[in-house]
Amino acid sequence: MENREWNSDKLGSVIEIKYGKDHKKLSEGNFPCLGSGGIMRYVDSYLYDDESILIPRKGSLNNIMFQNSPFWTVDTMFWSKIDKSKVFPKYLFYQLTLIDYENLNVGSAVPSLTVPVINEIEIQLPPLPEQKAIASVLSSLDDKIDLLHQQNQTLEALAETLFRQWFIEEAKEDWEEVSLGSIIDLVVDNRGKTPPTVDYRTEYPLIEVNAINTSDCLVNYNVIRKYVVEETYNTWFRKHLKVNDVIVSTVGTIGVFSIFTSNIGCIAQNLIGLRSNNISPYYIYLFLKINKEDILNLDIGGVQPSIKVPHLMDLKFKKPNIEMINEFHEIVKEYFDKIGTNQQQIQTLTQLRDTLLPKLMSGEVRVKN
Predict the structure, then answer these.
(1) Which residue, 320, 288, 326, is CA-closest to 170?
(2) Cα-flanking dihedrals φ and ψ of residue 319, to 5°?
(3) Strand boundaries in the chain, DSSP class E
């Protein structure tokens, strides 16, 4: 919806789109090197050191980014010089997040954007003070979300440190070597079955890799866009997850793990769930995470990366006694409970931001300068 009190213009009138450059000859350093998928590495040089909006040229077209510190971008990522006399950079970023860049795709085999197409994007420009006020509201929500993510990463790091200390650094010689399969009572495996989905919200979200491939250890329901109806949920799947099952990605983006805590949803065919009746889910989750490189090496190759469940179940480790695992569980449960509380707040704040965003950008909701 367009606000008639605001000016409209083309994006090309307020920013200059610039091309990224090859990074291969750069040395390691402290500046993020960004592609359309995110940070690729850290390098010793930067292309730009002012506020900039980064727009994918190829690949994941909707993954636009905002940078306010020195950075380098590769040739699959555009960066921009912003005319701050006309537009407040963070306001412009938020407005541009509302656009579905897939609809602007000019590529065939590989999704692509071009400078002329980007320059023609229509934008709305309220007075600069109002732009700043809008950006301030949205940034305050994002800052709270980021802080909660940081807390969760710290809490998980504490649990991982304790796991390494107890079960790796101080491992006992007399601990029995066992396979992962020996402590797993059930594998929830719906591979080979692609359920019919709907794009409207139901009580049964379909959990895919993108919902567990996050900085936190829990399912991120805010990114889920596919759902199934009740009949599909009850009849299509072989098995369903239960609370405290550990989710593992086995096809495509492999070696990603999560703990299922909310009893909401079902898993897509590129995921499996591991259930143990006696062993702590936190122990299993951290074991998998710490042994991620070994799990990635189980890839059988093919058109896309893939792990066979029997190979995963054959993963060997030194098993401590159950009393020690239970003691560990009681200590780290406090960390994971706090992570769960934070995750609920993150989802609430994210939903609030996503609800406010289009209303602020259209002028339906106004903020004081």
Answers:
(1) 320
(2) -95, 125
(3) 7-10, 15-19, 28-35, 38-43, 52-56, 65-67, 72-73, 77-82, 122-125, 176-179, 186-189, 206-207, 246-249, 257-259, 266-267, 271-275, 316-319
Q: Which neighbouring-strand residues pair with 256?
A: none
**CATH of 146-346 given 3.10.310.10, 3.40.50.720, 3.90.220.20, 3.30.70.260:** 3.90.220.20
**What are the tens digits of pLDDT across the range 202-233?**
999 999 998 997 777 889 888 898 999 999 99
pLDDT value of position 4: 65
Chain mean pLDDT for the chain = 93
**Amino acid found at 6:** W
Helix (H) or strand (E) segment spanning residue 131: helix 128-164
Q: Which CATH number fits domain 7-125: 1.10.10.10, 3.90.220.20, 3.40.50.2300, 1.20.200.10?
A: 3.90.220.20
Reported as type and span, the H/E element at residue 96 is helix 89-96
In this prediction the pTM is 0.85
